């Protein structure tokens, strides 16, 4: 029965994701034909042209290719019982923990190899074609080598750890503890270890901006946060900003591309958006929701470990269970949890915009968002269903509409 459930979910999830991509595709084509009417009222028409739509279509094409590749891989894994094959290859390893870790690395590698051509195409085909790309082939290979090292490390640790805790009858509790620990360790290590591997972080050099930022932080009663500029222009011309870390390691990172393209007051507006995320404890709330979703999934996995699932897939050890359960539950996440989580995240973005508008005034935030969107060719509204399933931020016309309403209140 569980194999049938897997294939029903597989067909459902593939159909749904292809349907969402085709809806967005049609939406973009329709927009290209009616550019003038679509943007009326919210967006400067001069900034939107066919090129923006073509750029979005290219990204959509890559995203569809990547999605279909992942479904193909998961179908091959189940149809050809790859977990048993890989398990056979690791049979000589006498320690069950190392054996599970090696098994994890094999599957981590499989997913990395399948994602590599799409990552390459995104950078050297789409981003280069639209003149955003600054990444050289050697930087790309170096970045991928870092990604690969993390995949190898995390899949080894993850599977080895699961093999140990699965022996206990209360393994779901241990697993939830591991998930929570992982979130905390990641929050501490990402700003300290991961980000410096990709970017050189320097303190802001602009005296006027430093003065304004210090004034602002004093006004808001914040003294624990440091602002850094990342040399993102070595890889891309896209501009961005984010807040990362915990406690004393809290950092706001501004891309150098953003600092050079915005006026000082507009940089302050973007900074306020990031400070809004921090003041409103968005990262912690997001982790809370992620852990709640993981708790539901762990409960499902626990139910699966007690009924015919083990028999139907002829599972012989914890690592085999982990991979089959992951493939099945991943589709449950895609179909049901992804829109809930993304809706929560988009609402946080709107609240951060509101925080910035309250302290800097909406017109500055509108100007900053407009410039960033023009620089990033990111003006387009999304189909509402595509947005629900894939967008971490509300589309720019929605954000501007909201900020304009806020001005009028
Ligand atoms: Zn944000």
TrEMBL record:
Q: Where are the transmembrane segments?
A: 6-23, 102-125, 145-166, 173-199, 287-309, 321-345
- Free-text remark on how the cofactor is bound: Binds 1 zinc ion per subunit.
Q: Which GO terms describe its biological process?
A: CAAX-box protein processing
Give the organism the record lists. Answer: Acetomicrobium hydrogeniformans ATCC BAA-1850
Peptidase M48 domain location is 204-405
Q: Where is the active site?
A: 274, 353 (proton donor)
State the needed cofactors, names only: Zn(2+)
Q: Protein name, please?
A: Peptidase, M48 family
InterPro entries referenced in this protein's UniProt entry, alphabetically: CAXX_Prtase_1, Peptidase_M48, Peptidase_M48_N
